[in-house]
Design goal:
Blueprint (H helix, E strand, L loop, with lengths): L2 H10 L3 H10 L11 H9 L5 H8 L4 H10 L7 H8 L5 H10 L7 H8 L5 H17 L5 H14 L5 H15 L3 H14 L16 H5 L2 H6 L2
Helix pairs in contact: 3-5, 4-5, 5-7, 7-9, 8-9, 9-11, 10-12, 11-12
Length: about 230
């Protein structure tokens, strides 16, 4: 399938209601064709993984095509320089999160990006660092507690003053770190008590940020920690 064919297919899956919602949010300069994420995932399954095609779709400047690009990209072919360039063109939470989980987390330089972006004042970069940390807490069993302890300290110092979507990602990271083992759970619960409720602005959506203290003191979680 060629880029033009794929863009035509995305256009055919367009939902005018989604486009209207997007226009109200004002989510960046990319064009949005209003394609449901589930439909994009189905489309991705019919397309062979291709680094070159992923680059072409990304360069279209169409949000839906960028999301699809993260699904068909070959992470082992992605360079650090490509990540730096493309992250400058990530304007929304959904694209940032898919870019992290589908591409960055599967590269050999994920830690380099985490360390760099944790200091960034660019909202999507800083958010991405903490979403990647949350993934590490869930998946990387070889990382020492000390690594997460210093991250918890940073979260406690900054979370209530952070930008909206960074705040949400820090909250997810806190929950993931505190779900790792008894020691980190103890530290995370104490921290959650000190910082209080984390308020995230979801606009007109009914979504609410998960309550870290409730999550971290759930009986089922506590019973499974070692």
């Amino acid at each position: 399938m060629q880029r033009a064919d794929i863009l035509d297919k995305i256009q055919s899956l367009s939902d005018p209601r989604a486009i209207a919602a997007w226009s109200r949010v004002g989510a960046g300069p990319d064009q949005y064709l209003g394609t449901n994420l589930t439909r994009l995932k189905e489309l991705a399954k019919s397309i062979k993984k291709s680094h070159e095609l992923a680059l072409e779709l990304w360069d279209s400047g169409i949000h839906d095509a960028k999301l699809l690009a993260t699904m068909i990209e070959r992470p082992k072919k992605v360079t650090s320089e490509q990540i730096d360039t493309q992250m400058e063109q990530v304007y929304t939470v959904d694209l940032a999160d898919k870019y992290c989980s589908n591409i960055i987390a599967r590269t050999s330089f994920v830690q380099e990006k985490i360390d760099l972006w944790r200091q960034s004042e660019v909202e999507m970069k800083c958010r991405s660092s903490y979403m990647l940390i949350a993934a590490q807490a869930k998946q990387k069993r070889d990382l020492p507690d000390a690594y997460f302890e210093q991250i918890l300290q940073t979260i406690e110092q900054r979370i209530q003053q952070e930008q909206n979507w960074v705040k949400e990602a820090m909250n997810y990271a806190l929950i993931a770190i505190g779900s790792r083992n008894k020691h980190l759970n103890h530290l995370s619960v104490a921290m959650a008590r000190r910082v209080g409720i984390i308020e995230v602005d979801y606009g007109m959506s009914a979504c609410q940020a998960p309550n870290a203290l409730t999550k971290l003191t759930a009986q089922k979680l506590m019973q499974g920690l070692v």
